[in-house]
Amino acid sequence: MNENQTTYSAVLGVILSNLRKENGLEQGEMAGRMGLSQASYSRLEGGKSAFSVDQMYQAAIALGMNEDDITNRTNNTVSELRANDVEVLPQVRANTYQGKSELTPVGSFVVGAALGALLIGLLSKR
Asked: How many angstroms separate the CA atoms of 19 and 42, rounded?
């Protein structure tokens, strides 16, 4: 994946990281509210693991938010990224045909430094 690409999970991870920090929560506390270990939550927030629908709902509950707000923020951010010529792709999972033929590890899907800065810049305008 090049620097003009990211994944939906990485976008959601940055959004949840910002929301968590706005609410004054540490990763461990957020993880506990979601029933996850801190390490598992860290992988989700860092874009190294793909979010499940259940985890997105758990995150909304942990933040005291409506699920639609998180979904809308994600959709808006994806639209902004695409407008800035960033391709947003689904994360390749190891249990898919594509995942079995990929030579790059899942970790390569983590947002690069330049893309991370773009995401943070876009999200901080809200």
From this structure: 14
